[in-house]
Input
Amino acid sequence: MLFVVVAAVHLVQLLLDLPTSGITHALLVPPLIAHLLLRTRGRHTPLVRWSAVALGFGWLGDAVPVLLPAPAQLASSIVLHALGHLGWIVAFLPTWRRSIASERPPLLVPYAIGVVGLIGVCLPGSGRLWPLVVLYGVLLVTMPVLATGIGIRATWGGVGYVLASGLIAWRAFLPGFQLPADDAIIVALYLVALVLLVSGVVHRVERPSREVEPTG
Output
């Protein structure tokens, strides 16, 4: 409930272009981390722990850059969110045999086309940040592919994360690219993606399965 209230307030602030939106932006992810840990209390498997780590780095990627000088903001955001993606990848890796990478490899093609296209569009404007852009792109496509091994909710969460990150990248590296109310659109996609990822993880932990989740 707290997450819904903070998210609604934040989106309204973005639509009204209020300066206090930076404060609510930093308050978005902690309620999701708390929800994840509380819903899985007593079952903090590696999936849960690494998902919490991923959310934590995502939160740092939202909150830390605004505290830094302008030249360092974009690079710090990319690095911290990349670490967040890495956390999701580690969380989802044990279930990769249930993902499309193992069960339906042809479905990897649209993911590959999407990330190659995104990197190709962003590289010309990325300057000295191009290694980070390439690395982020690789992590960005790996996470949603592995998320398909968790379930349908995490699958759509991964897709939503790619869409939100793609819009951010286009806005950062394509001069003149802008959508009406693009801040609100990007944040809404980002939040829906996180909710679906967290919901997918919780459902996976709660769902009875013949397979034993690793506990070490």
